[in-house]
From TrEMBL:
A Pfam family reported for this protein in Swiss-Prot or TrEMBL: Thioredoxin_4
Family as reported in the entry's similarity comment: Belongs to the thioredoxin family. DsbA subfamily.
Keyword tags: Isomerase
InterPro entries: TAT_signal, Thioredoxin-like_fold, Thioredoxin-like_sf, Thioredoxin_domain
Function summary: May be required for disulfide bond formation in some proteins.
PROSITE patterns in UniProt: TAT, THIOREDOXIN_2
Domain of life, per lineage: Bacteria
Protein name per UniProt: Protein-disulfide isomerase
GO molecular function: isomerase activity
Residue intervals of the Thioredoxin domain: 42-217
Protein species of origin: Xanthobacter agilis
Length: 219
């Protein structure tokens, strides 16, 4: 999915969710660039508390920028991340940081709902939203679709409405995308930074093996 600054900057986006949005999709091949690691890890890069899985002592840090309305991101999270997690994250080799990069108000709202979940439910909520993406992201009434999904996780309608009325949260979620686009050159999702090396596109486990092997040699 490609970045459209006008959509991200179009207000807090909550009211727009109720109207529904068409979501443009495009496919991106993996391509590598270098990035300033200090900029990737700067406090401004993450306006909200970092969402991290894996050991803080891992020799490799992977940062992912994703949009919850991105089909390629959903493919990665449902098909490839479980194997990456079992092989590299759970074994202490990779620290994985997930950052919001909403392309549109619907994605902003979905990320807000994940942020409003209890701390230990953030990643399960993100996983559920990716798994059910087709039922809400591309529907005529995405707000109703999102409500149906989050109610299955235990969130009430009152909590849902309160969460989506938090303009400060909406702005912080969107600020993550603004920074990544302006400072890191992120314009597609998913985009990964592997110890500072930028990779764009959906990466299968064979590609991850190739990228991580030289970084983990002898470790």
């Amino acid at each position: 999915m490609t970045f459209d600054r006008r959509r991200v900057l179009a207000g807090a986006g909550v009211a727009a969710v109720l109207a529904g949005f068409g979501l443009p999709l495009s496919t991106h091949d993996a391509r590598a660039q270098s990035a300033d690691v200090a900029k990737v890890m700067a406090p401004a890069a993450s306006p909200l508390p970092q969402k991290v899985i894996g050991s803080a002592d891992a020799p490799v840090t992977v940062v992912e920028y994703a949009s919850l309305t991105c089909s390629h991101c959903a493919d990665f999270h449902t098909k490839d991340l479980p194997e990456l997690k079992a092989k590299y994250i759970d074994t202490g080799k990779v620290r994985f940081i997930f950052r919001e990069f909403p392309f549109d108000p619907v994605a902003t709202a979905a990320f807000m709902l994940a942020r409003c979940a209890p701390e230990d439910k953030y990643f399960p909520m993100v996983s559920t939203l990716f798994e059910t993406q087709k039922s809400w992201a591309y529907s005529k009434d995405p707000a109703a679709g999102l409500l149906a999904v989050v109610r299955q996780t235990g969130m009430s309608q009152a909590e849902f409405e309160k969460c989506l009325s938090d303009q400060g949260l909406a702005q912080k979620v969107q600020e993550s995308a603004r920074y990544a686009n302006a400072e890191l050159g992120v314009n597609a999702t998913p985009t990964f930074f592997v110890n500072g090396k930028k990779l764009s596109g959906a990466l299968d486990i064979a590609t991850w093996d190739k990228e991580l092997a030289p970084l983990l040699a002898g470790k």
